[in-house]
Amino acid sequence: MSSGEIECGNTLEDALDQALPSQAFVYRPVRQRVYALLLGDGRDGASPCPTVKEWFVYSGNPLRHPDLVRPLQMNIPGGTPDLKSLWLNQEPGVQGRRLDALLGCFDLSSSREELQAVENPFKALCCLLIYLFVQVDTLCLEDLHAFIAQALCLQGKSTVQLVDLQLDYIDPRAVQLGSLLVRGLTTLVLVNSACGFPWRTSDFMPWNVFDGKLFHQKYLQAEKGHSVEALVEQNRSRLTKFHALKSVVCKACVKENRRIVSRQHGRSQQPGRWGRQGSGSHRTSSGYSRAGHGQHWRDQGAGNRPYDPDHWRRYSPSSGFQVSYHWDQKLYLIQFQSC
């Protein structure tokens, strides 16, 4: 385990969209805390701080060499539990410690109470949404509405209904957002297993909380200004759950000094920030994001060097890109070329 490598050689990302970060960077602090849990972070002085080789694709990284990533210190109430207790201990109360470790990996220990009150399978989804909206400043209220609405509506959809969904057009930002969430679900699988399975794995299998085409439909509707009632398809039960889940995410984000605003409000308050070529920022590079010390995600460098949270390298985006999305045995290709 100490000499293992981790890789992710595919992604759906728009290299020319400066407003959304690469999934490789968004979830890197989570992986770094998992490394600390599994390998230690070298704070005891008895052994050198380990490094993990990461082969993650992102714009500007030709994958000729891995990024050498160091573990990130965890902040868990009561201290970081050892693996023997997380994996083997069956005593009462250990499950709570496992949950503490999981939330510590996402740096969301302060949201424990709110997340505990959420019913399955939405607990894991809310955890991911809180993390994403704290990390990525360019996510807006319409994005949150689309994520929650599709998860709620998915519960009442048959396979035939999902297959028959028709979209007016394909928005590349919606494709990337969907991909970003699914990568979060796979990251959650990693975290949950490392922490001794505090949550049921089935609760964050994609088919239980996410459908790409349904999300795309809700995203387009939210962008057009459709009401929340329309997003949940005029279903009162879903509407009640929608407001409850939205409240959990928004309150948790406020604790982390992140206020989620609508896209129109964001444009009026911060011109250019929400645009395709805007100056979107990724809050976390080193994991210390609570006081606004994050750096611009697009300044992170390519591989072949040790990953230093405080050292960034600028890269030149490619001149064109291609995004592919597979829905119901149909491959949609979207190709964009720079001017």
Q: Strand arrangement, largest sheet?
A: 1-2-3-4
Radius of gyration, whole Å: 20 Å
Low-confidence stretches: 268-305, 307-339
**SSE string, helix = H, strand = E?**
EHHEEHHHHHHHHHHHHEEE
What class do helices, strands and sheet pairing give?
Answer: alpha/beta
Largest sheet: 4 strands, mixed
Q: What is the tally of beta strands?
A: 6
How many helical elements? 14
Mean pLDDT: 80
Keywords: Receptor
InterPro entries: Coact_PPARg (IPR026784)
Organism: Mustela putorius furo
Protein name: Constitutive coactivator of peroxisome proliferator-activated receptor gamma isoform X13
Explain the overall architecture:
The protein is α/β, with parallel strands linked by helices and 339 residues long. It contains 14 helices and 6 strands. The protein has helices spanning 23-26, 28-39, 83-88, 94-105, 112-116, 122-135, 141-154, 159-163, 172-194, 206-209, 212-223, 228-231, 236-255, 263-269; strands at residues 5-8, 52-56, 67-69, 306-307, 320-327, 330-337. The strands form 2 sheets. A 4-stranded mixed beta sheet has the order 1-2-3-4, with no helix packed on it. A hairpin with a 2-residue loop joins strand 5 (320-327) and strand 6. Helix 6 packs across helix 13. The longest helix is centred in the middle third of the chain and has 23 residues, at 172-194. 40% of the residues are buried. Mean pLDDT is 80; it is low at 268-305 and 307-339. InterPro entries: Coact_PPARg. One of its GO terms (biological process) is peroxisome proliferator activated receptor signaling pathway. This is Constitutive coactivator of peroxisome proliferator-activated receptor gamma isoform X13. Residues 279-288 have a biased composition (Polar residues). Residues 261-311 are annotated as: Disordered.
